[in-house]
């Protein structure tokens, strides 16, 4: 069994309703995000690959395009633009083209923030 991961970065703006830091969070502001998508599987004995990283990359490009340089409040089916919702949104976008999808993590490196999503069926 192997875990194979691919990352992409995106820059985006949002607003957020919070119980603390209410005013600055409500104002439109931006973050630099890094997403990591991980699949689990056995390497095919002929190709030596779990999945070709080139195919993996194509699958992630569409998700990145839906987030990069976007106003996240307007992204359909996202909800409040938290790391939690971003990781679940990316999961839903890539699950059909990523067999063995195991984990989606979204990082906000400037703050040391990260959130991982293991899918709707994970305990
Ligand atoms: N559980 C979560 N909590 C918070 C999230 C989140 O995604 N999940 N996100 C935010 C905000 O996006 C917020 O803008 C980050 O705020 P904060 O940590 O207070 O840091 P700064 O505003 O100083 O961040 P900068 O990146 O330096 O602007 C809050 N909570
Ligand atoms: Zn923010």
UniProtKB/TrEMBL annotation:
<dbReference type="InterPro" id="IPR007115">
    <property type="entry name" value="6-PTP_synth/QueD"/>
</dbReference>
<dbReference type="GO" id="GO:0070497">
    <property type="term" value="F:6-carboxytetrahydropterin synthase activity"/>
</dbReference>
<keyword id="KW-0456">Lyase</keyword>
<protein>
    <recommendedName>
        <fullName>6-carboxy-5,6,7,8-tetrahydropterin synthase</fullName>
        <ecNumber>4.-.-.-</ecNumber>
    </recommendedName>
</protein>
<dbReference type="InterPro" id="IPR038418">
    <property type="entry name" value="6-PTP_synth/QueD_sf"/>
</dbReference>
<dbReference type="Pfam" id="PF01242">
    <property type="entry name" value="PTPS"/>
</dbReference>
<keyword id="KW-0671">Queuosine biosynthesis</keyword>
<keyword id="KW-0862">Zinc</keyword>
<comment type="pathway">
    <text>Purine metabolism; 7-cyano-7-deazaguanine biosynthesis.</text>
</comment>
<feature type="binding site">
    <location>
        <position position="29"/>
    </location>
    <ligand>
        <name>Zn(2+)</name>
    </ligand>
</feature>
<dbReference type="GO" id="GO:0008616">
    <property type="term" value="P:tRNA queuosine(34) biosynthetic process"/>
</dbReference>
<keyword id="KW-0479">Metal-binding</keyword>
<comment type="function">
    <text>Catalyzes the conversion of 7,8-dihydroneopterin triphosphate (H2NTP) to 6-carboxy-5,6,7,8-tetrahydropterin (CPH4) and acetaldehyde.</text>
</comment>
<feature type="binding site">
    <location>
        <position position="31"/>
    </location>
    <ligand>
        <name>Zn(2+)</name>
    </ligand>
</feature>
<dbReference type="GO" id="GO:0046872">
    <property type="term" value="F:metal ion binding"/>
</dbReference>
<feature type="binding site">
    <location>
        <position position="14"/>
    </location>
    <ligand>
        <name>Zn(2+)</name>
    </ligand>
</feature>
<comment type="similarity">
    <text>Belongs to the PTPS family. QueD subfamily.</text>
</comment>
